[in-house]
Amino acid sequence: MRILVLFILMLVISACTTVPEQIQGSYPDISPARVEPGVLGSSVRWGGVILGSTVRDGQTCFEILSRDLDKHLRPELEDHTAGRYIACTRGFHDPLVFGEGREVTMTGRIRDIEVRRLEEFDYHYPLLEVQNLVLWEKRRNVVVYRGFHDPWMWYGHYWRWGWGHPWWGPFPMHSNGRAEVRTLLPDPAIVESSVPEQIN
Question: Which of 53, 99, 117, 151 has the fewest CB neighbours in a 10 Å radius?
Answer without folding.
Answer: 117
